[in-house]
C-alpha cells in the first residue's frame, strides 16, 4: 500500500470510528502494543476471575495474530451517571461492551467493504481469551496515560472510559503517545478511596521486573486485592439469570480528571 494511500486510510479510519460512536479513537503500532509493560509482567501474576460467571483462569499471555501490524483503539465514555453501562448480567456482556462490540464490528465491515486489500481482526475483550492489553495499546494510541490508580486516564474523561480494539495487517502512523501527566502533584484521591487497600504496599520494583512502568506507576497496585472487591460484587449479585453485578468504580469516581 502506497504511503499516500496509507495516510488516506488512517484518516478515514479514525473519522469512521468517531462516526460510528467512539468518543475517543487512536492508532498504535502493533510492535509497541504487543511489547507493553503488561504483556511482560502479566504472565507471572496469579490467576483471577475474568468476568461474571467465569472460572478461574491464569493471567495469560497476550496472543497477537501474525498479521497484526497496527491496532485501532476505540474508547466509549462511561460517566458516573450511567453506571448501567458496565453492569454485568449472568451469561451476558455489559451494555457498554455490547455497544463497543457493535462499533468495532461495523468498523471491521466498513474496512472490508472499502479497503478489500486490508485485513481487520476484532480480538476478544479478555487477554485470557485471546485479547490484547487495551490500556497499554490506548497509551501508544495517544488516548491517555496510565495513572497511579493503574487505569487509563484520558484528558476529556479521566479514567471513566471503556475500550475495544481492531487489529490491522498494515503499518499505520501511530497517533500517540501524548505528553499528559495528571497524576503529578495530585493528592491521590483515587488511592485513598479503594475499599480493599489495593495500593497500600509496594509489590513490584524495577530491579526485579526490569520494567520502568510498574503497576500503579510505583509498583503498589495489587490486582488480587482489587479482584477481591470484584468477587464480592459477584457474590452479592447472586446466581440467578436476572442477577446484576455492579462492579466497584470508587477509584474512577474519585479521580478529578475529566470532571
Characterization of the model:
The chain is α+β, with helices and mostly antiparallel strands and 259 residues long. It has a domain at 3-181. It has nine helices and eight strands. The protein has helices at residues 3-19, 30-34, 37-41, 95-114, 134-140, 189-193, 206-209, 223-237, 250-254, and strands at residues 24-29, 70-77, 88-89, 120-121, 145-146, 152-153, 161-168, 244-245. The strands form three sheets. It has a four-stranded antiparallel β-sheet with strand order 1-2-7-4, sandwiched between helices. Strand 5 (145-146) and strand 6 form a beta hairpin. The N and C termini lie far apart (42 Å).
Structural descriptors:
about 30% helix, alpha+beta, about 260 residues
What's the arrangement of secondary structure elements?
Elements: H1 3-19, E1 24-29, H2 30-34, H3 37-41, E2 70-77, E3 88-89, H4 95-114, E4 120-121, H5 134-140, E5 145-146, E6 152-153, E7 161-168, H6 189-193, H7 206-209, H8 223-237, E8 244-245, H9 250-254
Antiparallel strand pairs: 1-2, 2-7, 3-8, 4-7, 5-6
Strand arrangement, largest sheet?
A: 1-2-7-4
Strand percentage: 5-15%
Q: From the helix content, strand content and strand pairing, which structural class follows?
A: alpha+beta
What is the C-alpha radius of gyration, as a whole number of Å?
18 Å
Describe what is shown at a glance.
The protein is α+β, with helices and mostly antiparallel strands. Helices cover 32% and strands 12% of the residues.
Amino acid at each position: 500500500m502506497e504511503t499516500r494511500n496509507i495516510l488516506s486510510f488512517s484518516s478515514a479510519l479514525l473519522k469512521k470510528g468517531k462516526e460510528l460512536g467512539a468518543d475517543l479513537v487512536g492508532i498504535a503500532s502493533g510492535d509497541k502494543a504487543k511489547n507493553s509493560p503488561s504483556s511482560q509482567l502479566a504472565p507471572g501474576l496469579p490467576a483471577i476471575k475474568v468476568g461474571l460467571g467465569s472460572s478461574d483462569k491464569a493471567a495469560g499471555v497476550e496472543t497477537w495474530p501474525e498479521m497484526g501490524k497496527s491496532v485501532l483503539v476505540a474508547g466509549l465514555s462511561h460517566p458516573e451517571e450511567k453506571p448501567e453501562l458496565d453492569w454485568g448480567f449472568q451469561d451476558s456482556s455489559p451494555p457498554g461492551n455490547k455497544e463497543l462490540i457493535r462499533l468495532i464490528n461495523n468498523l471491521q465491515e466498513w474496512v472490508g467493504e472499502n479497503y478489500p486489500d486490508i485485513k481487520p481482526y476484532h480480538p476478544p475483550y479478555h487477554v485470557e481469551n485471546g485479547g490484547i492489553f487495551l490500556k497499554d495499546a490506548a497509551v501508544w494510541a495517544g488516548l491517555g496515560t496510565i495513572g497511579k490508580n493503574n487505569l487509563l486516564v484520558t484528558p476529556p474523561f479521566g479514567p471513566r472510559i471503556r475500550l475495544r480494539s481492531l487489529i490491522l495487517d498494515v503499518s499505520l502512523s501511530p497517533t500517540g503517545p501524548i505528553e499528559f501527566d495528571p497524576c503529578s502533584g495530585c493528592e491521590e484521591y483515587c488511592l485513598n478511596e479503594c475499599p480493599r487497600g489495593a495500593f497500600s504496599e509496594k509489590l513490584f520494583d524495577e530491579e526485579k521486573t526490569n520494567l520502568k512502568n510498574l503497576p500503579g506507576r510505583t509498583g503498589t497496585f495489587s490486582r488480587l486485592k482489587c479482584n477481591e472487591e470484584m468477587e464480592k460484587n459477584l457474590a452479592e449479585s447472586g446466581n440467578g439469570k436476572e442477577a446484576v453485578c455492579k462492579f466497584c468504580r470508587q477509584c474512577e469516581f474519585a479521580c478529578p480528571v475529566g470532571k
